[in-house]
């Protein structure tokens, strides 16, 4: 899911509810294509065979989520029954109090930065005690997080964040989504598309952005000259009449993992291999830190340095230069390929080739490291024929008019995918990078 920089959030723009509005499974023909399930995935084939050619499936298994720097990731029905939504549980505590709440079904998103919680998922006690951040002039601080298909609108508040056995060293800024009336949305100043301020809109109770950046906007919103035009943040005197404002880094919605006392230089998303026909669920592990513990070594993973936002801007697909990114917050692969047949209105925007297909993209880092990634594509109509499956490794859709290649959650199955944080804004030397082992 993309936020704040190039308006390329692709997680929700084509959500499919796997238990609603599904057509009957297409008649299967041919054979082959299925890879075996795994002990970490609670499902096998959907019961239909897949004809055509698919690449060999990666086979990495997640480590057990038993250490303090780990937490289980679940792909299943989740909060609202949206497919391919990886979720974890997050605990919030009001600063300086013992008032805390654990919130389930928070989407793991390596394509955005910062923690956002749907206000409706907070109990009354938490809603009352989480302090709202104020601007230097005393106005309420709110944020509009803009995505390709819509936006989230809500206040910036602070909370101590615990995930697994790790807790932030102090309270960090988060966005509480939908806690402000729709009438306060700045006219012409927020994102296009519809508001995504409920769990139903998002497909989850919140989003934890753990991509390569430490802050969701950074220098653009901290600098008054650029903030006047591009800031995501708004000063709302008395909670209304909201206008764009500059916000210091300290008050911007922040990647909470970077605020842990240890294991704070990156994350590893580990998902199990699953059948090419999909699975009812899949259980993986989110590991905090890279090279900080015995369970998070980089090892032989191929490493690509990226721009500030985790993008591989010199990648090549079908002979064209594209911006590629490894984004667990997108529920499919999304790219432009006119040779692939698009689905009809039932699955508008997804690809529905008559036989399984393989496509290759050359990923290129700023460090000149290159590698070819092969992905499989199966007709969305075939995959969605079984309304009990929520995990898919070969679902793909179209990015209209964008020179982008979104390696969404399907790419993560059977791989260990690393996102190293850009530590330079806080005096570190680590440049942002992504890596994977399969």
TrEMBL record:
Origin superkingdom: Bacteria
One Pfam family cited in the UniProt record for this chain: DUF3443
Keywords on record: Signal
InterPro entries documented for this protein: DUF3443 (IPR021847)
Biased composition (Low complexity): 37-53
Span of the signal peptide: 1-27
Start and end residues of each stretch annotated as Disordered: 36-61
Coiled-coil ranges per UniProt: none
Protein name: DUF3443 domain-containing protein
């Amino acid at each position: 899911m993309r936020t704040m920089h190039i308006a390329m959030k692709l997680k929700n723009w084509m959500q499919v509810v796997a238990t609603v509005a599904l057509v009957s499974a297409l008649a299967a023909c041919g054979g082959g294509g299925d890879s075996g399930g795994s002990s970490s995935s609670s499902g096998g084939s959907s019961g239909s065979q897949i004809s055509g050619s698919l690449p060999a499936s990666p086979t990495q298994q997640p480590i057990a989520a038993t250490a303090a720097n780990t937490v289980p990731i679940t792909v299943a029905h989740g909060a609202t029954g949206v497919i391919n939504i990886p979720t974890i549980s997050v605990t919030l505590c009001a600063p300086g109090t013992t008032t805390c709440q654990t919130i389930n079904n928070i989407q793991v998103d390596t394509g955005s930065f910062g923690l956002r919680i749907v206000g409706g998922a907070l109990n009354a006690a938490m809603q009352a005690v989480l302090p709202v951040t104020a601007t230097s002039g005393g106005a309420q601080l709110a944020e509009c997080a803009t995505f390709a298909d819509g936006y989230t609108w809500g206040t910036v508040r602070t909370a101590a964040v615990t995930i697994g056995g790790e807790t932030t060293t102090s309270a960090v800024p988060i966005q509480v989504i939908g806690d402000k009336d729709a009438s306060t949305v700045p006219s012409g100043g927020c994102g296009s598309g519809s508001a995504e301020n409920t769990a139903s809109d998002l497909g989850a109770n919140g989003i934890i952005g753990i991509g390569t950046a430490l802050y969701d906007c950074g220098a653009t919103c901290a600098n008054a000259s650029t903030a006047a035009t591009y800031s995501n943040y708004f000063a709302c005197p008395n909670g209304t009449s909201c206008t764009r404002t500059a916000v210091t880094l300290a008050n911007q919605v922040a990647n909470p993992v970077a605020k842990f006392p240890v294991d704070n230089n990156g994350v590893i998303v580990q998902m199990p291999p699953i059948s090419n026909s999909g699975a009812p669920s899949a259980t993986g592990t989110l590991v905090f830190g890279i090279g900080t513990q015995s369970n998070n070594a980089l090892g032989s993973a191929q490493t690509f340095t990226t721009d500030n936002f985790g993008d591989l801007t010199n990648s090549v697909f079908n002979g064209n230069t594209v911006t590629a990114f490894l984004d667990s917050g997108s529920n499919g692969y999304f790219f432009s390929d006119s040779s692939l047949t698009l689905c009809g209105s039932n699955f508008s925007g997804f690809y529905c080739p008559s036989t399984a297909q393989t496509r290759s993209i050359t990923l290129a880092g700023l460090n000149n490291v290159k590698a070819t990634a092969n992905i499989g594509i199966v007709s969305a109509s075939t995959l969605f024929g079984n309304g009990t499956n929520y995990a898919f490794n070969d679902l793909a859709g179209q990015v209209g008019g964008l020179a982008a290649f979104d390696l969404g959650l399907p790419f993560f199955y059977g791989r260990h995918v690393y996102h190293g944080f850009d530590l330079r804004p806080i005096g570190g030397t680590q440049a942002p990078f992504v890596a994977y082992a399969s």
